[in-house]
Amino acid sequence: MTKRAPRTQKTKLFVLDTNVLMHDPTSLYRFEEHDLFVPIMTLEELDANKKGMSEVARNARQASRMMDDIVSGSPDDIHAGIALDGPSRGLATGKLFLQTEAINVALPAALPTAKGDNHILAVVMHLAERFSQRPVILVSKDINMRIKARALGLDAQDYFNDKVLEDTDLLYSGWRELPPDFWDTHGKGMESWKEESRTYYRLSGPLAPELLVNEFLFQNGEAPLQAWVKERNGRSVLLETLVDYAHAKNNVWGITARNREQNFAFNLLMNPEIDFVTLLGQAGTGKTLLTLAAGLTQVLEAKRYSEIIMTRVTVPVGEDIGFLPGTEEEKMAPWMGALEDNLDVLNGTAGEGGDWGRAATRDLIRSRIKIKSLNFMRGRTFINKFLIIDEAQNLTPKQMKTLITRAGPGTKVVCLGNIAQIDTPYLTEGSSGLTFVVDRFKDWLHSGHITLQRGERSRLADHAAEVL
After folding, report:
1. Domain-by-domain residue ranges, the chain?
2. Model's pTM, two decimal places?
3. DSSP H or E stretch at residue 144
4. Where are the strands (E) in 207-262, listed by range?
5. Where is the PIN domain (predicted)?
6. 17-27 per-position pLDDT tens digit
7. Domain covering 258-467 in this structure, CATH number
8. Do 40 and 99 meet the contact criterion of CB atoms below 8 Å apart?
9. What CATH code would you report for 13-157?
């Protein structure tokens, strides 16, 4: 039995706006010992938004089902509040209150009560007067709603429970610089040996417990080092030196790494033991180019995977241009400009043969790249594929789970994105699906992450990214 938290006057009463439930239906169980109040207008707006196949409509239906389960499965009186500890299996120990009476509150004349948001504000004002000894707080994802609430002297908060990180500066970068005295403090009892062209170091020291599996380490100076952590065992770690993809002899489909982070990324993309790779970085850092080069090499030369599958979220930056004609691939073509641009670069590195040779190479490449829409991914299984998810910052954690669980045996999944360019409503840098997987997959033996920092597109693009 979960021990119920003592009910005090300081237990807060949270009033839920509709957008919180449509963003996260499980929010009903996320407020621990505090009580929840759902206004009748919230239920009306859920009802108005339940139709359709969008993520918002699915969440609205899910929230309604959860409330139905809570209300119908409880012997408690709705007026006195319904205990949440049973339905939530101990996650929440507060009560759920539904609005059961008409509330008449004189709102300022400038706020018409016909509007749903203002109706909810009227409910919050009524509750604040009725429970004057208790904190009554409106929870809303709508910034303007929160501003209006504060202007009326009411408490209002954003919904934070879905945030993976409060500050994206704390997000795992995938690499770290070793301190200058690293070998002095970690060299005692160190083992070192060579296998093939790699050097291995098994060492222990104060930094060893902090290092994560597949984290990249570098040290500049007289004896520069680039290595990654292959295993961690208590206070000791095993480091392995990297393949130098900056050298022309190790080029990947004619592409060489132009900076340190690109070299780290190639080591992840080309390693068959790594099943899941995430690459973050601003425009022009080379995410798509590196991934496509690695994919083509492993599909056409190494025959490790049967084909490349590329998908992305179709969220327009400007006005939508309406329905697009054609097959699934043809409909996705306008969204795949980045793919075509990078193929032009890669096709230019495919060797000699003149125009005919390049045209033949391009046809071969295009025959091995399939473009798929996210809308038809549910229920599929990809076996022995190189799956690229572009613009992954626009995915919710739930959508990201749906996509990654498509991976069958022998499939590698690569997620690319820039969390500073989120176009999906209600999604922030802290709650994006990309942030979610970077945080959850770190320190897993078969996954790796790199945040690319230096732009390599052009001096104009780099300068624009800095000053605009």
Report:
1. 13-157, 170-241, 258-467
2. 0.73
3. helix 143-151
4. 216-219, 225-233, 236-241
5. 12-147
6. 988 888 888 88
7. 3.40.50.300
8. yes
9. 3.40.50.1010
